[in-house]
Amino acid sequence: MSEYSATVTVALNSDSQPNRSYDIAIAAHSLKNLGDKLLEIGLGKKSKKVLIVSNPVIYKHYGETVQASLSKAGFDIAQLILPAGERFKTANSLQRIYDAALAHRLERSSVIIALGGGVIGDMSGYAAATWLRGIDLVQVPTTLLAMVDSAIGGKTGINHPQGKNLIGAFYQPRLVWVDPEVLKTLPAREFRSAMAEVIKYAVIWDRELFDLLTQCDRLDRLRDVSSKLLQTILYRCAKAKAEVVSKDEKEGNLRAILNYGHTVGHAIESVTNYRLYNHGEAVGLGMLIAGAIAVDLGIWTADDQAKQVTLIVKTRLPQTLPKDIDLDAIVDALSTDKKVEAGKVRFILPTAIGSVTLSDRVTSDIVKQNLRQILA
Ligand code: NAD
Ligand code: GLY
User: Which terminal residue of the chain, N or C, has fewer Cβ atoms less than 10 Å from its own Cβ?
Assistant: First the structure.
């Protein structure tokens, strides 16, 4: 990945709000240049204080490089290392970020840097959105999922004990700084799981990406994905998300398509107590079901569904559910989805490769029937 660099802009201009556009800058070995980049985009002009939020695993690998880079650029750094994992995406961790912000005397013009995956990114984002009613946020994603999805687009938040991501805000970062080299230390399961989101973008938005993925023999390990394909994945997914977010920042309508596979996926995650599948694995299953439902409704061909299944197989994502899983519980869980409107679950269904539609025509029976088809 030595020479590669690319930039995608999330364009956020409207008459009512000043320009809040920002770049997703993708460049190999760029972690060491973060400090200079912050100065270049005007951060650190008034306050030089930054708070890096990370977790022990990520900080051990990359903390020193980031700190050295910021130090060289003259920033006054504090860091907060939170425990790793979704179960720490809590009000308690958020409180610890506020405590660190207070201890380091962050000001309105100071910066919070999220160095990590989606968990660190979402929590730090929400802290930045709310501390002093909003301070600058920079996302430095270290998982493939965060690079292609969670660090982009301004959804921030924490979990409530009763449900995922129930507390949050839309708050855009000033910069998303992607160094793909950090993926070399990412655990294989995290890579596979994020590939489900990559397949999602290909199905909902980007036929060319779909074709490129189709040409690949294996998609389950970083070492089997060429540098060129990885670059293409990072660029095209960032571009897809940027385009969708630019058109519909606060999920009035279009942005909902980014939840393709997530409706059933979330229900499966919840019914299996977040233990059996991680997020991407559940999304993979959700896409299988959404595709099968679309075939039943006659809006997507069996041939395209087979192509989608092939990508999921090549990524070694799960394709079956345990035979004793409670299908009624999955269907019940659908009705608590955040995307329910006027009591109706809105499904995102594929219509062609690169294109989806929103539908409230999906009955519990169709869902259950298709879930039954993938019981082990
Ligand atoms: P994560 O943040 O939990 O990271 C996964 C694991 O990988 C962690 O154990 C972490 O320590 C480790 N890790 C991270 N980077 C590493 C690296 N470079 N080398 C070695 N280990 C590394 O998981 P995730 O998949 O990045 O994010 C999931 C979260 O993102 C969920 O909370 C989900 O709700 C959220 N999310 C948010 C959005 C959004 O738009 N804001 C979108 C999708 C998902
Ligand atoms: N991950 C869904 C979204 O950002 O809207």
Answer: C
Please, what CATH class does the domain formed by 202-373 belong to? Answer: mainly alpha
| Marked catalytic residue, from 259, 278, 281, 314 | 259
Nearest to 219 by CA among 261, 200, 191, 197: 191
20-65: per-residue pLDDT in tens? 999 999 999 999 999 999 999 999 999 999 999 999 999 999 999 9
Measured in angstroms, how far is the CA atom of residue 146 from the centroid of ligand 1? 6
Q: What is the pLDDT of residue 337?
A: 65
Out of 1.20.210.10, 3.30.70.260, 3.40.50.1970, 3.40.640.10, the CATH code matching 5-185 is 3.40.50.1970
Could you write out the DSSP letters of every residue in 244-258? HHHH-TT-SSGGGGG
Concatenated DSSP letters of 271-308: HTTTTSS-HHHHHHHHHHHHHHHHHHTTSS-HHHHHHH
Residue 341 has pLDDT above 80, yes or no: no
CA torsion, ordered 112, 87, 57, 118, to nearest 10 deg: -50
Locate the domains of the chain by residue range.
Answer: 5-185, 202-373
Shared fold status for 5-185 and 202-373: no
Looking at the whole model, is its pTM more than 0.85? yes
Q: Which of 255, 307, 346, 368 is catalytic?
A: 255
